[in-house]
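Weekly puzzle thread! Below is a chain. First person to post its structure in token form gets bragging rights.
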Amino acid sequence: MSEPKTLLSMAGAPLQPSKLSEAALVLIDCQNEYVSGVLALPGVAAALGESAKVLARARAAGSPVIHVVHHGRPGGGVFDPEGPSSKIAPEVAALDGEAQVIKALPNAFAGTNLDDILKATGKKELILVGFMTHMCVSATARVATDLGYRTTIVANATATRDLPGPGGDGVVKAEDLKRAELAALADRFSIIANTAEDLGE
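Winning reply:
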């Protein structure tokens, strides 16, 4: 049996990660909710540490940086915009002049000005980091393809959580879910880089 190939590979698309100098960095939901809130994720500290490395390299390269933050209902159980859970984690806090986009849905383009901000940068390549791998990172990457962007996801700068198996069949562990989601995205929607060091200058 032949080795499986991605659709991107079969199409002869370039498979190298985006260069920092040619891309915008989009940090998705790097918020305290995933650190110490109801949705605290396994492996989040390491993922934030890797996100911080990506952010530092992007800033050094002069890449546009956009921080996407999720807001739930005021007084609600998760991502309360009036509470500490909605704040950006200090490891990747925004600097003055870096754009911030507030969203209410998994796809960071839905109901926001993210596309307008990106068009203003002139960049057609995006580097994505953040949370959760199977939810907002995935939804944003898929829609970015529809909008004509090429995306690179830094795998070690994302994390997700355990989920119930379909139909109540056991538990899908976070690492298995993350691996499967990244494999699905790599088929058609994104280039997967493992670490910050895998991004070109």
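Puzzle host: Confirmed. Bonus trivia for everyone else. The two ends are 38 Å apart (CA to CA).
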